Amino acid sequence: MARVVVDVMPKPEILDPQGKAVTGALQRLGFDGLTVRQGKRFEIEVDGDVTEDRLEEIRKAADTLLANTVIESFTVREETVADQAANR
C-alpha cells in the first residue's frame, strides 16, 4: 500500500503562537538557536499506485479540507519506502 504525505504549515506572514511557545520552551531547556514553526502532517494510505491523477485528487482534498489556504500552505508528496523505514 502506498502512502502520500500532506504537510501543512502556517504561511510565513502568519503568527504562530504554538511555534513561539515551543521555541521559548526549548530555549529555557538550553536548546539555543532553534526557531520552531508548528504545522500538521497527514499520512494518507492509497490503494493501488500513486499516479499523477491520484496526487492531484489529494491536492484538491488538501486545498478543500486539510489546509486553511488563507493562512496555511501545503505540500503533497509520495512517501518512499526509505521514508517509511526512517519513520519507524
Automatic annotation (TrEMBL):
The keyword Transferase does not apply. Part of the phosphoribosylformylglycinamidine synthase complex involved in the purines biosynthetic pathway. Catalyzes the ATP-dependent conversion of formylglycinamide ribonucleotide (FGAR) and glutamine to yield formylglycinamidine ribonucleotide (FGAM) and glutamate. The FGAM synthase complex is composed of three subunits. PurQ produces an ammonia molecule by converting glutamine to glutamate. PurL transfers the ammonia molecule to FGAR to form FGAM in an ATP-dependent manner. It is found in: Cytoplasm. GO terms for biological process: 'de novo' IMP biosynthetic process. The gene is purS. Part of the FGAM synthase complex composed of 1 PurL, 1 PurQ and 2 PurS subunits. It is an enzyme of class 6 (ligase). It comes from Microlunatus endophyticus. It comes from the Bacteria. Belongs to the PurS family. One of its GO terms (cellular component) is cytoplasm. This is Phosphoribosylformylglycinamidine synthase subunit PurS. NCBIfam families: phosphoribosylformylglycinamidine synthase subunit PurS, PRK05974.1. Keywords: ATP-binding, Cytoplasm, Ligase, Nucleotide-binding, Purine biosynthesis. Its main location: cytoplasm. Gene3D superfamilies: Phosphoribosylformylglycinamidine synthase subunit PurS (3.30.1280.10). Pathway: Purine metabolism; IMP biosynthesis via de novo pathway; 5-amino-1-(5-phospho-D-ribosyl)imidazole from N(2)-formyl-N(1)-(5-phospho-D-ribosyl)glycinamide: step 1/2. InterPro entries: PurS, PurS-like_sf. Its EC number is 6.3.5.3. It catalyses: N(2)-formyl-N(1)-(5-phospho-beta-D-ribosyl)glycinamide + L-glutamine + ATP + H2O = 2-formamido-N(1)-(5-O-phospho-beta-D-ribosyl)acetamidine + L-glutamate + ADP + phosphate + H(+). One of its GO terms (molecular function) is ATP binding. It holds the Pfam family PurS.
